[in-house]
VOC family protein
Amino acid sequence: MDLIAFAPSVDLPRAVDFYGSVLRLQHVETTPFAAVFRVGAVMLRVTKVEALTPQPFTILGWSVPDIRATIADFASRGVEFTRYDGMPQDSLGVWTTPGGDQIAWFRDPDGNTLSLTQFV
């Protein structure tokens, strides 16, 4: 079986620009119902919805080998990283878990929370 991930969007052209141009995911196609991307072996379907209330938790995340380089790359294309009150994050917005993993969060144009993780 292969995993298919889903994310909601009220504006597919805007989602195609963000996921394709900003995050540089491979855009496969856009239909009236979804924008489809390939992320390695995983299919990501950004599904058209009429209304959206973003959830307060991460809906999609990526494991990256160098979180600081990825943050710099994404920030150069306009991605803003999220800071959370009471959470000790460094100047780039990275939180280090007790086990040493590093995580940073950002939002897509619909307000969905996405993350980057560099595992130890």
